[in-house]
Design goal:
The chain has 111 residues and is an all-alpha fold. The protein contains 3 helices and no strands. Helix 1 crosses helix 2. The protein starts with a helix and ends in a 22-residue tail after the last helix.
Length: 111
């Protein structure tokens, strides 16, 4: 027995009415189709949000790296000649950790 037939039988019993099997099945499949579409859309939106969060974390790591390099160069007289270069490179000129990938994957080390 298909899910649609089970639904029709339970629906008729619940409503206490005899209904046109074809109409109830059509409504059932229409609702099922809408639920599938809603689920796919929700999943797609969730994946987009996950991707945005990954990108934000990656950009934050680059900003942090730039700030660290810049502050170190500011404090060390031998490195101050590199400040102008760092300013020209900016955040986008920083490479991310080589073990890190833009998608957030990569080795994780625990100590």
């Amino acid at each position: 027995m298909s899910a649609a037939n089970v639904f029709v039988a339970v629906f008729e019993q619940f409503q206490g009415l005899e209904m046109d099997l074809k109409i109830v099945k059509d409504v059932f499949f229409t609702q099922l189709k809408m639920l599938k579409q809603d689920f796919k859309l929700a999943k797609k939106l969730k994946n987009k949000q996950k991707s945005r969060n990954t990108q934000k974390r990656w950009q934050m790591r680059k900003r942090t790296l730039f700030t660290q390099h810049y502050n170190i160069a500011l404090q060390d007289p031998h490195l101050q000649r590199h400040l102008e270069l760092l300013e020209c490179l900016g955040v986008d000129g920083m490479s991310s950790d080589e073990s890190d990938k833009e998608d957030g994957s990569g080795p994780v080390f625990c100590m």
